[in-house]
Amino acid sequence: MNEWQDMITTLYKNGCQLCPRECGADRIHGQTGFCGMTDELMAARAALHYWEEPCISGTEGSGAVFFSGCTLRCVFCQNAEIAAGHAGKMLSVDRLADIFLELQEKKANNLNLVTATHFLPLILPALEKAKAKGLKIPVVYNTGGYEKTEIIKMLDGIVDIWLPDHKYRSSELSAKYSRAKDYPEKAAAALEQMVQQTGVSVFDKRGMMKKGVIVRHLVLPGCISDSKDVLEYLWDHFGNKIYVSIMSQYTPLPHVTAWPELNRQVTWDEYHEVVDYARFLGMSQVYIQEGECAKDSFIPAFDCEGI
């Protein structure tokens, strides 16, 4: 795993360039990057998580570690409390390694690293320590999709399951809601590398994923045309090499009032129009959400459990 060390030195110690924003913050000396974080490792929750896709959570749960801060910080963020760094607790690399092992001991199906990129210089040594002590469950990289291909290549052999978002095909929407006009191209290049690394998906006899790529798309109110563009892009470029999760759970939280078009839930007509388009395209490896998914209760409590 030591292959990552030289790259981390280049992309982090000389002004942070870990994500496509390349903000250049001197995080090692206390300056915060766009992600809102210095180099002090911070997480808001480490617990069994039952609300991921069925092949990730299963009945035992996914061992999810929610890291504070975010390189995207979308205006509609469902985890805004931690994305803005308003929740979480500082911890050491050694403590993080112990957390990984504790989640394995709790019979987690996998280790789910949620929004981890900006802390990779600290997470990778923790993984190395944990694996030396017996960590064996698959590693899930749960990301908003806004990644540098250099980082994805660096994680080859470390990450088993890629769980990226593909939020937009429209650069206009990505600029408006995520301040990242280049999101579509960066997310596409990163996803191509993830799929190239992974090859054929692997499941165990219980149907739990051991290796593979699941691309998530959260349907936003009024953005149905772009959702269709996302699905068409994914199908045309990757076909059945990936699984796709079409999510209906968008919850308008108080901070979206400045964007009134987002200040409502997605209607079932809107959601089913997107799902029907997936069927029209011929997509078969698709997870959909039915029932009462668009609730605040599906947002975890970021109360530092397990930290």
UniProtKB/TrEMBL annotation:
Keywords: Iron, Iron-sulfur, Metal-binding, S-adenosyl-L-methionine. It comes from the Bacteria. Residues 66-160 form the Radical SAM core domain. Pfam families: Radical_SAM. SUPFAM superfamilies: Radical SAM enzymes. This is Radical SAM protein. It comes from Hominiventricola aquisgranensis.
